Structures are given as structure tokens and as C-alpha cells.
Amino acid sequence: MRFALPVILLLAFFAGCSSETESLRKKAGNSDKAIIYFYDKMTGTPYAVDSILNMDTLQIILAGVSDEDAPALNCGYSGTIEFFANNQPQVKLDFNIEKGCEHFSFILKDKTYTKKINPDAAVVLGNLFSKSKINQ
Fold it and tell me: What pLDDT digit, counting tens, does each position of 17-55 carry?
């Protein structure tokens, strides 16, 4: 019986917490568009900017943020996606799609998180990247 209170407190704590990935999806899930920036590998400056208005594409990208933490990588970023709802910024998602460096990075409540990218999101981002190279 003396362990009941600590167990109840732990259960309440974990039930009240949502994962940072879930929080990201909630924050960006109401977005009606996103702007994606692809960076030049040598200079780190954006060379291509594109709007994503297709909600299915946005949902694939958001679903592609794994709950699994990515290791600390010193790879830089392939690009950034900014999510907007009614032209108001919601959240920014940095990403790298290079082999061996695949991950997302984002900030929630002043804390930075790095998460693995699932294969579907990597394919979508790779296709958007290829399209941006063609349009250069």
C-alpha cells in the first residue's frame, strides 16, 4: 500500500505528458501551407524556395518525424520547412536527407529535439529536393 502513491503519481505524470513528436504534430497539424528552403551544401545559403500547399504532402512529412531520437550529428542541414496556419508561423523543422545524416531538428518550448526521419518522409523530401534542382 505504501507504494500506491508513488505509482499513482508516476502514472499521472506519464499520462499528462505527450511526446515532443506529438506536440510538434499538433502544433504544425493545423497548417494550411509550408514553405521549404533547400540549402546550398557549400555555402549553407538557401538556393531554392518552394511552397507546399498539398495537405497530403504536409501530413507525410509530419508523420515522418520519428519518435526515436536521432544521435547528435554534425552534418548541417539540407533545408528547412516552415509551417503556417492563416499566414502565421507555427513551427520550423530543419532536416537533413543525406545518407547517414538523415534527421529532423526542431525547437519546442525553448528545447531542441533531433528525431530520425522515416523512409516515406525521406522519399517525399528527396523528390522535392530533386524538383528544386531541376527548377534552378
Answer: 458 889 998 988 889 999 999 998 788 888 888 888 888
Residue 59 per-residue DSSP state: H
Taking the C-alpha atoms of residue 94 and residue 76, their distance in angstroms, rounded to an integer, is 9
Quick check: 117 and 78 in contact, CB under 8 A?
no
* CA–CA gap between residue 117 and residue 82 (Å, rounded): 17
- Cell, residue 54: 498539398
The alpha-helical segments, DSSP class H, found in the chain are 4-16, 20-29, 55-63, 119-134
Whole-angstrom distance, CA of residue 56 vs CA of residue 54 = 5
- Residues 109-124 have a mean pLDDT of 93
pTM over 0.85: no
* DSSP letter for each residue of 93-109: EEEE-STT--EEEEEET
C-alpha to C-alpha distance for 23 and 113, rounded to whole angstroms? 12
Query: Which candidate, 104, 126, 121, 123, places its Cα nearest to that of 21?
Result: 104
